Amino acid sequence: MNIFSIKHYFTRNRIAASVAVIMYSPVFVFASDLQLAFYGPEMKQSSFVGAPEVLVQSKYTIDSTCAKIANKLGSVRLSDCQGKGLDYAGGNSVNGLPIMVKEFPPVEGRKPLSKVLVIGGIHGDEYSSVSLVFKWMKILSKHHSGMFHWKVVPVMNPDGLLRKKSQRMNDRGVDLNRNFPTPDWHTESHKYWVQKTKRNPRRYPGPAPLSEPESQWLAEYIADFKPDVIVSIHAPFGILDFDGPHSAPNKFGTLHLSLLGTYPGSLGNYAGKHQEIPVVTVELPYAGIMPSRSEISSIWSDLVRWLRKNASESLQQASQKQQLDDRQAQVSNFSDPS
User: Fold this and answer.
1) Is residue 96 part of a domain?
2) Parent domain of 176
3) Residue 40 lies inside a defined structural domain of this protein
């Protein structure tokens, strides 16, 4: 049995809340007054900023997880996953499956234009979102030039994907894409779930922001990696969505920009609107059918083209900000010669 010791920590700039610590053997999780019965019987109140160390016992390895994915998805071969440099980066699902990451790091002698985080399968029943990321990993394995520093998470919700009947939510029935800590989460997310979705279980945001080990890990990973862009793959709306600063892409392949808006607890709301990281959501047309080979290539080419444009905009804005700061400093020095 493998034992992974994961240090979950959040500074005041990330999360500061009075939470309940719940013993959910063998994993500690965090929840609030919206506690649901299935989180376990033992609960004690605790008010803190730093979260405790979490010990996750898991019988799963990268290789065994790859085998499960290949057995589940006809469009992902075992050889697409095993032996491809996917690593364990400290994250586990509720059931202990590792959240795997593949890094395409900077190349010696070339400074990357930006850092890009790619996420597939945050909803477990959106098969094509996982398969597409594995196809992109193949492209990067052949053509990574160091233009960008990539970190790729092909399956963000392994429990949802690898159930006998795959589901959108994680194993505790939480929609991970509604579980991120956006402002007024406790009132707004629950209100939206009750009034707008009529308590649709597929949209359940969880008992508290970052109550789930998967979303906890992703929030920490974003804080550590500090990506310049996040690309999240979904299905089946057949569009592009965008949240955050800079110019949105007009199209990737046949997918055209159509803004869906932001939702309480969504990744686009959390990272795009409030962390000011551009978040591109690629909504494939079908959850169970892959795009054609030419469409996959076209989406990829347009993505890379937009990433270059976005990096240029970022540099230009940073330069303008620096010039403004310099002018303000000069004015301040002139008015206060002491």
Assistant:
1) yes
2) 61-317
3) no
